[in-house]
Amino acid sequence: MAQIDSASNIEQPLTTADGVPLKVSLQRTLRRQKIVALSLVAPLFLFILFSFLFPIGDMLLRSIDNTIVPSELPQTTKLLQNWNEQSGELPNEAVYAALAADIKKGAKSKTINRTGKRLNYEYSGFSSLFRKSARRVQRLKADKVESYRKELIKIDKKWGNIKFWQVLKRESGIRTASYYLAAFDAETNEKGEAVFKPENERIYVNLFGRTLLLSFFITLMTVLLGYPIAFLLASLPTRISNLLMILVLLPFWTSLLVRTSSWIALLQKEGIINDFLVALNIIDSSNRLSLIHNSTGTVIAMTHILLPFMVLPLFSVMKTIPPDFMRAARSLGATPFTAFRRIYMPNTIPGIGAGGILVFILAIGYYITPALVGGTDGTFISNFIAYHISTSLNWGLAAALGALLLLLVLALYLLYDKIVGIDNMKLG
Amino acid sequence: MSSLPVYATLGEKIWHYLFRFICGCIFFFLIFPIIVIMPLSFNASPYFSFTKEMLSLDPAGFSLRWYEDFFTNENWLGSISNSFIIAIFSTLISTFLGTLAALGLSNPRFPFRTPVMAILISPMIVPLIIAAAGMFFFYSRIGLQGTHLGVILSHAALATPFVVIVVTATLVGFDNSLIRAAASLGATPTRIFFQITVPLITPGVISGALFAFITSFDEVVVVLFVGSFRQRTIPWQMFSGIREQISPTILAVATMLIIFSIILLTTLELLRRRNERLRGITPS
Question: Tag placement on chain A: N or C end, fewer CB within 10 Å?
Fold first, then answer.
């Protein structure tokens, strides 16, 4: 027996002091650690979900939301499903009667004008049509009406226009693609196909183009200005470069509005640069340069604001290039320019890529600076998003434009992640 | 490049000094707009440019009227208290949640680390105008638009990525054998946390909090949409000031903000040095 005991003891796994097998105990501890780690992250995760990701998701839903039409005109939209919009004939009497009933109900609850406003984005004339109809339909006496079709067309001729009915049928679902079509300067024609609007009515495609072009130009400027000073900072002794670094970091830490307002002071017609040039008799007082409230102002101010985002990644990459490389190239007979072009420059490409994409991403989403110094031809897509939120109140279109901008930025971030890795993002 | 070798040719010498001149110009471009508004804020006349009296250093050309305007104007005074209330509360929220999350994320066995991290730092990635639009739509739906709470929550969301990144970076250099040593000497987990972990990560948490504070204090896009006049912060007031009636009071505010950011920048730098010293890394 004793022999068997000692043999089974060897077979038995190692245990902790309280007799639990070591493997089990270890697993338990690790699981506990994992749970602790998860529960530490959970509050922030939920907070971001509620205060940030839900709002973004809400915006994405809003860009395709059309519930107002089917909920305000429930009977009409239901009956319209049986109407063939390509037949060239107006809907039948039942649809007109349903419309009159829906409008009457909407007029009582005073919500019908919202429907008119929503449909007016699709085809102008709907807003006044619904306002007028709501006022007059209430006066119709049900027992005296012979034909609702006649009565409604008498109220407004537009109810006899097939175009209005086609739009109404197209927008009778709870989802719509029309905001995205509008964001691409497109519309739906009579046949139900998406076509581009006439050249002179296109806004957003050009605006996206301008945002990308100006952002690219700003990025190029930050590379041209950032490269020399990053090179100087990386090659100077640390003591001096730390001091010069303050000149880069101070603008970086200064409020965006402070920098924008100082550019206004510098660039405006009665501003410092124009005064200076006039005082030196370089330009005449009557034809001062217009440096602000146009794309020039946007490019100058944003290059200044985004330059530190270029210098800092470039500097950290240049710091890692051993000076021996250049010395070796020189000792092998390369001229300084060749050594720079063939040896130093290729080593800094990752820095240019990282800084360039970062500046570009930040630039295309900029709102404040273009809004204050951009005038009309220096504004970005974000300024139109803001305009549709607070002035034109076309929230669906604002949401669609926002979703497209978001898509663009996320695509660029994937590129950034491929090149540098998001985790390597440095602060200051 | 740092110093010119004795064998440099004339061309190299010219290039050397030309290059330094170009760099000097770029540094000038960076710093001049920030320096120039300081004297301009003491302008006695309501212009955005130097007057003849100012250039001849005539005392009559200078005055403190714009500073006086700032400290007596009800709109600006309201914006100061709003800015501080919003920044302090959003800093508290984001620092607390961000530090906890960073402690959790530093566990090497944390599952789905990359996607979770991507979600946590997403407020830093998404352009502000999109965040502002989404928050405006969502917060007006649930009645938080135009309230202090709405602005505080949105600023806290924008600031947490900075806290998470800074505190995580501090924890990378954290020596886990200190915790094991303490445990083997009989310390309870609570005691280990307060006597070992907390003192070591405090500098990181403070710099994270400073980042969060600055994020909220400088933020204008979200507050323009999520807030209203009652939540006006200093940047909100500056933005509407520049848009409507531009007065040199804005330059006085700007000067004070620059001094404020110099103080913050110095604090951060001192903290970074202290942090490196604590962790036994000699400052480079």
Answer: N
